[in-house]
Amino acid sequence: MMESFVQHLHTNYVPSEPEIKLIHSHLASHETELARLESLIRDLSAQRDQIKAYIDPYRALASQGRRIPQELLEHIFLDCLPEHRNAAMSSAEAPLLLGHICSAWRSIAFALPQLWAAIHVSSKFMSDVPISELQTWLARSASSPIAFSLQCASGETEKALPALIDVSARWKRVQIHGSSLQELESTAVLRVAAPWLQDITIIFREDPVDWDITRDPTRVLVLSLFQGPSLQSVTIHTTHPIGFVPREPFLWNQLLHLTLSFPMMSDDPRIQTNHGDFTIDSALLLMKYCPRLESIHMHLYWPHAPSYQETIFLPHLKSLTILDRSLISAQDLSYFLDHLNMPALSHLHLPSVCPQSYPDAFQPSVFSALTDRSPLVTSLRLPLPFFDQQSFAEILDCFPSLVVLRTIDDNHSPRGGEAPVDTAHLLHLLSHRPPSHTAEILCPALKELVLEQEALHGDTFWVSVHEAILGRQPLFERLEIRVRYQYQEEHGTPHFDALHALGVQVGVGYRFPKGSPWNGVER
């Protein structure tokens, strides 16, 4: 009888009242059996849980984990720490997470000083937790050298810094982000003694201009925090550099790496006055105080009255980078380079053209003299509008050992007179022998070309790049194109495929990609 219902199963059929009674009658015996089986399952599950509860402690007692030597476990714990940042004060990651596993792990973790020797502190987070938590963390690090990063919120710097200052004798690497000079001065952090400190980075908050430029400002870099005997690397970023660079002679004999990022962020004359405290002559004087420098990254600003006479000898300097957003002309840069003797220099990176730059261009004699003193340059970054087409081949010819060439073509042409160099002219020079040169190609050792562009406009650019690279032997090993704006869909893929087939690595990236319907949507 029930077979007649089979055709209605899994359909929208509505049975009649007699049919419903028939269905219930048919299912009664099946539901009784189902209840019996579920009761049996509950009984068996209870027996299983009882046996498992008996077995588990014995199994844990004989587990492999208990036989891991403590020394090996400590190495594993250390490998659990974040690789590229300091550990946060969160139980979601090591080292705090390790203390939540079991009492044995907690004992090992709390007794391992190296596990607590690096910490990221958010001052905003610290405003909601007792300072004792930070003090406990620092106490667990015992006598280990300390690395910390402090993310400051306005007006909240003072809470965390005193606890960190208490262990300043053990500082090894320090990063402070978002504080102001006045806040750091109020906590005396700039005046602490840190004999083990090797690396310090301070990124100052961009406060409104509130400097009294008539006062004699504190010279930050001569304060005791920056004068430790172990200090090798200093990074300072501020939009208000007045008061940072010393005026009186001092010696940074131990310093190897220096970054002074003083970007001009506004046309406000008060800000320009602040930047006027750090001129090219100031930079030269500072470099003189650092005879062991291996790398330096800095912004440069015009010399109001160039007066420096001495040539600075930097025998160990390998990398010199003048940062973008420097307010400087080709004449200023020439003056700067002419006063440096850097026999070990291998990386020279010049900044992009600033719209306020003076209307002049680099002369070949500047680079000829430079490479006479620095013959080992293998990596070079050049702002193309700072050069004239007539003399650019002669300048490139000064760098026969060049391996990496980066160029900036930002479409700024502040100069009159000779036509400035652009990317098209550069590509032509690199793939054709100039008539006045005997060499087959310019820069014969060149393997990598990086083109920094304001924008790309259609397929013409890709065709010229493709043809230029194919016209050069040997081919580049790598081509990278960095674009500020993406105005339209580009058409480089077929050319990329052709270059890839020849063994050339090709990459392109946009700082500001083309607009998309998904802009602003969290993914």
UniProtKB/TrEMBL annotation:
<feature type="coiled-coil region">
    <location>
        <begin position="27"/>
        <end position="54"/>
    </location>
</feature>
<protein>
    <recommendedName>
        <fullName>F-box domain-containing protein</fullName>
    </recommendedName>
</protein>
<dbReference type="InterPro" id="IPR032675">
    <property type="entry name" value="LRR_dom_sf"/>
</dbReference>
<keyword id="KW-0175">Coiled coil</keyword>
